[in-house]
């Protein structure tokens, strides 16, 4: 017989920190925003120095990734390879973080 009954809704098993953090983000409905911020920060790493040095602004609104590029040639190249850029993003962050890319 249990001496004290625990009525809290907390889980009793031990979870790795990453899992616990992900559950916390989901519980407070912050997971999407957190993933979006990580994506914006990872843009230079994902695209490389040449593209990153000519990118002036990267932001996400309504699951659309907006990328402002100063070079017309790079903008055209990125637009033509939009699906490849989406693949790179999906490999790193999974599907659903963004649904579209807009080059400005």
UniProtKB/TrEMBL annotation:
Domain of life of the native organism: Bacteria
PANTHER family in alphabetical order: UPF0232 PROTEIN SCO3875
Annotated protein name in UniProt: RNA-binding protein containing Zn ribbon
Species assigned in the record: Belliella baltica (strain DSM 15883 / CIP 108006 / LMG 21964 / BA134)
